[in-house]
Amino acid sequence: AKQEGRNGYRFFTAEMQHQSARILQLESALRQALDRHELHLCFQPQVSIDGRRLVGAEALLRWTHPQLGVISPAEFIPVAEGSGQILQVGEWVLRSAARQMKQWLEQGYPPAMTMAVNLSLAQFRHPGLVELVVDVLQETGLPAHCLELELTESVAMHDPAAAIAVVRRLRALGVLLSIDDFGTGYSSLSYLKQFEVHKLKIDQSFVQHINQDGHDQSIVRAILGMASSLGMLTIAEGVETAAQRDELERLGCDEVQGYLYSKPLPAAEFEAFARRHLQQ
Ligand code: C2E
Ligand code: CA
Ligand code: CA
Ligand code: CA
To answer: Whose C-alpha lies nearest to ligand 1, atom 13?
Structure first.
């Protein structure tokens, strides 16, 4: 057992070394990614629960490195958060998404359509955030009500009092706010009420088994009930099947996002999706 333990220990450190080498590699590659135009955005359609209206897009970051290939945001966003690079990357995302949405508005996309952008904790806590948003709206000419900022439940609840103050200042600009991955963190309901965000995004982990798991169904029902009593809209993420959509509709969810309608798409393909969808 002792021998095994030693091997186990050696294996563990080798694994950790491997991981930290990968993190350093990504950090240094990320430093050049913006300048070398290796980053781009994909846009995932958000659709009304009846499937009839395109109501928005979520901007999702993509990175293709010439040698390392496609790197998932689930891997590199945490690295960028750890190194502080997320501030620069996040600013690029915000500017690019706003510019794209402004272009789509000019092309006659539904004016009620919103562009949702993810914010990391470091961005959200940065004292320059409100100014940055003002700046981006001014520079791009995008109306504030077309921009939606997503903060995860854990970002919102990290320091709720401070977060509520920032959310108020952002709301005063006219931008929309949503709480992402809702249900996975530990929201205090009294804080949630004070946030006065526009929308709750129900995490995909509750959607996945909604047709089989009565427990998940109850959680979603409770979230929807709470959102409705607080006057918030709801969107379910990760909707892959018509059966999931039907159940969400029965429970009273407002909007859906997921592979059932579309995966995240490069801008040109999103435009094709929108044209098809607008014709119906
Ligand atoms: P998220 O914000 O919760 O985004 C939803 C994720 O679910 C996306 O993964 C999306 O591609 C995926 N997804 C959408 N529909 C379905 C579905 O029907 N089934 C399944 N299984 N998955 C679906 P993605 O694009 O890999 O992004 C992962 C995470 O990386 C995001 O989770 C977000 O936390 C982070 N991220 C991505 N782009 C940005 C960004 O620009 N800024 C920040 N701060 N974080 C970002
Ligand atoms: Ca999100
Ligand atoms: Ca999410
Ligand atoms: Ca997530």
So the answer is: 238
Q: Assess whether the C-beta atom of 240 lies below 6 angstroms from ligand 1.
A: yes
| Ligand 2 geometric centre to CA of 151 (Å) | 8
Distance CA 74, CA 59 (A): 14
Evaluate whether ipTM surpasses 0.85. yes
Determine if ligand 1 sits within 6 Å of the CB of residue 73. yes
Going residue by residue through the chain, which has 280 residues, state the pLDDT in tens, using 9 for 90 and above: 444 555 556 666 788 888 889 999 999 999 999 999 999 999 999 999 999 999 999 999 999 999 999 999 999 999 999 999 999 999 999 999 999 999 999 998 877 899 999 999 999 999 999 999 999 999 999 999 999 999 999 999 999 999 999 999 999 999 999 999 998 887 877 888 898 899 999 999 999 999 999 999 999 999 999 999 999 999 999 999 999 999 999 999 999 999 999 999 999 999 999 988 765 5
* CB 93 less than 6 A from any atom of ligand 1: yes
pTM score: 0.94
